[in-house]
Amino acid sequence: MKARGRIIAFFLLVIVLLGMVGTTSLPIAKDIKLGLDLQGGFEVLYEVTPLSDGPEIDNDILSDTTDALMNRINVLGVSEPVIQIEGDDRIRVQLAGVEDQSQARELLSTEANLTFRDADDNLLMDGSDLVEGGATGTFDESGRPIVSLELKDPALFAEITGEIAQRPDNVLVIWMDFEEGVDSYQEERLKEDPKFVSAPTVSGRINSPSVQITGSFTVEETQNFAGILNAGALPVELEEIYSTSVGAQFGEEALDKTTFAAAIGIGLVLLFMLVFYRFPGVIAFITLAVYVYLILVIFVWIGGVLTLPGIAAIMLGVGMAVDANIITYERIREEIRTGKSVKDSFRIGARSSFSAIIDANVTTLLAAAVLFYFGTSSVKGFATLLIISILSSFITAVWGSRLLLGLWVQSGFLDNKHGWFGLKADKIHKLSEGKEITDLTTPFDRQDFAGNRNKFFAASLALIATGAIVLGMFQLNLGIDFSGGTRVEVTADSALTQQEVEEFLEEAGFPSDDVVISGDQSDIGVARYTDDFTQDQIDELTQAVNEEYGQNPNVSTVSNQVAIELAQNALYALAIAALGIIIYVAFRFEWRMGVASIVALIHDTFFIVAVFSLLRLEVDLTFIAAVLTIVGYSINDTIVTFDRIRENMRSMKKIDTVEQLEKVVNVSLRQTLVRSVNTVMTVTLVVLALLIFGAPSITNFSIALLIGLIAGTYSSIFIAAQLWLVLKKKELNKKGPIDIEKKEQESKWGSDEPVV
């Protein structure tokens, strides 16, 4: 009866979990904020400088500026804008979903200094003479859109208009952001599109509490104009030093493609788990569904913004969550193969695998935390989701998976049903044989990893030398994030050619000799420029592209100053992540394993860089995100191997010879290699889905991940473990036999067993 109760409890718990997921997922998904790359919009980073006669920049000035910017954004009707103060003199603005990006940029950047001048540009009145909040968009007697302003002192305006009416050139010129010594009415009036707002003729004295500004306005323009004036003039000058804009059509297409890729990747992972692990694979299916749901709930709760790299982080999190399941399931299967009961195997396997899982997750968290600290915009969002994914996977894969599987194990239903764990009868020994895990056969028993270590080292050195030659010849194809400049991405309804795009850009007045065609249908043209475009240049180019192709382009600009800072931050991020990992691994294991881990990470990073140099792929911020992700993943794989080495050394009590060390390494690698292959298989399925079906904007990101996965698996097996063996061999030769028990007593960490 008790056994049946556990199975009933399992089904009730699954029904509740899946019911909750099924009924609330859609409303939660609708509440997720989409980033610029998924719904279009733009992001701009302003450097704030004081006005010529204004105070120095401080926190109060920055706060007042963000308030003024927010008031202007409210005029646009943009939902959930993001305005952040960065450092001592910068403000980042993100407006997702805005339709007229040119208009929005103009609204933000104008200082809103309204002045009334005569034909000789002499100042007569300014914004301080107007009633605050008194500007309104309205209509004149003929139904034309106008802007009405309320005056503080009607008598002053009457005096000014009376004086102008007596002059030969009797115009009252109304300016927005007039620049002394630069702007001139006499020059501007000859232009087809003058810079001044309007220049009405004054025929007599006007004694009125309000002023009406007329011109060739649209209703929307009068509303925006009034909104800017009511928001007030900016207390500072703003200079764009970084910007990126994404057309709405790019965002929609990217969202569709990447969510489809996510579905394919996750589906393949689940299918693999079901085929290879059978019933535990079913448990993994349930916990992964809860895992994805939990991520979305937490992300909505913290008000996160979902981006393309963020979706990739969720998918990678699926691979890491599966990794925790695989570590546990493989260990349970090993215990079953020694002849232990399913209950004992579950208990021992859950306990023994916990240390490897927690160490692997902590090191990945370190890399993600560094990425969050040094990242910007979508990269920071990627890091946030990666952190949430790791924590959520720990909850579902460790606690949830063991709880659900434990109900079946403790019920006794799975006793002697080894096929439910994907095991064949001929692979299971009798308990009376006294087999230990180290005695079990593996598919790799013929491989002498330790004995061939010099060959592996030589192969890696040869590849490193080749990579160094490639880097010396081709160097890196740095994107604008690290080199500065402008990147323009044009999409068309049909296939494009390089010549066609080059000719169009030249006719538009923006010639480029660096044009690349991409996209599944060769329908995307990417042009790069060494100069960072001004707002006017971006507006002009956007209009030309829209007229030619019917869609707004993606335009990103990065100043040289920001490019240098981003490059420095990238190097800091990699260095700090590596330092944090080596400290943790040395503290949790020993310093030799820490050194070996870092050498393996440098090995992996170098190969990613070398391949990108050879293939001339663009190196940008998402590339750094991919490298740091691989750093976390690679150390994950290495730690699982080191954890097994540590466990096998404990069972030996004492090591007297090099041959014993080599045996430990060989046995440990053979035991963990199945897990390594299965894990890299699941994560590779996810990355391949991103690469094949995902949006073009994360193609390079996916390629970097794929290269890193291959290099990381190789280094964990053939570099890290072998290098540790070399260092440990020196210790053995120098200090004599290694007393494992004594070392364990000197360094106690506490219980590695979770309570479920």
TrEMBL record:
Instruction: Give every SecDF P1 head subdomain domain span.
Output: 122-236
Keywords associated with the record: Cell membrane, Membrane, Protein transport, Translocation, Transmembrane, Transmembrane helix, Transport
Q: Where is the Protein translocase subunit SecDF P1 domain?
A: 64-121
Give its localization: Cell membrane
Q: Does the keyword Transport apply?
A: yes
The record gives the membrane topology as: Multi-pass membrane protein
Q: Which residues cross the membrane?
A: 259-277, 282-302, 308-327, 348-375, 381-400, 456-476, 570-587, 594-615, 621-642, 677-695, 701-727
* Presence of the UniProt keyword Transmembrane in the record: yes
Give every Protein export membrane protein SecD/SecF C-terminal domain span.
238-399, 544-729
List the InterPro entries hit by this protein, alphabetically.
SecD (IPR005791), SecD/SecF_arch_bac (IPR022813), SecD/SecF_bac (IPR022645), SecD/SecF_CS (IPR022646), SecD_1st (IPR048631), SecD_SecF_C (IPR048634), SecD_SecF_C_bact (IPR055344), SecDF_P1_head (IPR054384)
> Per the similarity annotation, which family is this?
Belongs to the SecD/SecF family. SecF subfamily.
Q: What does this protein do?
A: Part of the Sec protein translocase complex. Interacts with the SecYEG preprotein conducting channel. SecDF uses the proton motive force (PMF) to complete protein translocation after the ATP-dependent function of SecA.
Assembly: Forms a complex with SecD. Part of the essential Sec protein translocation apparatus which comprises SecA, SecYEG and auxiliary proteins SecDF. Other proteins may also be involved. Forms a complex with SecF. Part of the essential Sec protein translocation apparatus which comprises SecA, SecYEG and auxiliary proteins SecDF. Other proteins may also be involved.
Identify this protein by name. Answer: Multifunctional fusion protein
